[in-house]
Amino acid sequence: MGSGNDTANAEFLLLGFSEEPALQPLIFGLFLSMYLITVSGNLLIILAVSSDSHLHTPMYFFLSNLSFVDICFTSTTVPKMLWNIQTQSKAITYEGCITQIYFSLLFAVLDVCLLTMMAYDRFVAICHPLHYTVIMNPWLCALLVLVSWIISVLNSLLQALMLLRLSFCTDLEIPHFICELHQVTQLTCSDTFLNDMVIYFVTVLLGGGSLAGILYSYFKIVSSICRMSSSQGRYKAFSTCASHLSVVSLFYCTSLGVYLSSGVTHSSQSSTVASVMYTVVTPMLNPFIYSLRNKDIKAALNRFFGMAGITGTIVLRLKTCP
């Protein structure tokens, strides 16, 4: 790896979960399975929403965007880890590490923004049902997603540029399966005070701000539900929020676990496990959470596979015709 501050030619070593050779096939198979489930599950959500006109609503528009972002989020980390296991190499180039950090942050912040928008959508639907179609019009939904992309790109660019100003020494071993911003920053031999301040400020501003928005939305939602006279109406209103609440809880609890484990306990193992939860497990579970209790998604998927089956039968018969 060379000595001194030869940062441009540096290579980081991703130590991963275990250096035990016997466990590598198990880890490879496990993460490959989770990655394939994540991609296929989220693709099905996107196909169901795009193919069914009944699902062309703000809630499902945000859900399809969330599914797309989850596919991209997982794809920034898992394929590289699988490649390293398959080639029995732990190395990642300096440029590759910075690129992975950039896109990981980009899609993580997009996840946060989309979850916040979905909370706002539920707030408007339950607290202001008569004005829902006027407030949540297609232009506003598209604008909210565009603003989220702009915020995410600018944040990722800022963090990447702040990282590029640092010099790295000889010990470039990352006790992780990905290039995680906090872990990489700890390997530098430069002063990281400004970088740490930027990381904490952005985390509080974006993470804390979005969480405050979600909590406020659900405070108003719960207040409105409690004022409903019909128990059936209360159940229906709550059931539309249950999936979103589950995803928000899973995402924020695991994300918080990463920062607590890295900043308080300094345990690389616990930080790695928490990172797996929000980078791999949460995107994998999202399609199940949103489809298992959602009759609209189930109906759309049935119609989609029904149409696909009919189309396949017609094509097959046309080919067999003389």
Textual characterization of the structure:
The protein contains eleven helices and three strands, in the order βαααβαααβααααα. Mean pLDDT is 85; it is low at 1-5. With 322 residues, it is mostly helical. A three-stranded mixed beta sheet has the order 2-1-3. The protein is globular. The chain has helices spanning 24-51, 58-75, 78-87, 94-127, 132-135, 138-164, 181-185, 193-226, 231-265, 268-292, 295-320; strands spanning 11-14, 91-93, 173-174. The termini are far apart.
Record keyword descriptors for this entry.
322 residues; mainly alpha; three-stranded mixed β-sheet; 11 helices
Short characterization:
This protein has 11 helices and 3 strands.
SS content category: mainly alpha
Total number of β-strand segments?
A: 3
Largest sheet: 3 strands, mixed
Shape: globular
Portion of residues in helices? over 70%
Low-confidence stretches: 1-5
Average pLDDT: 85
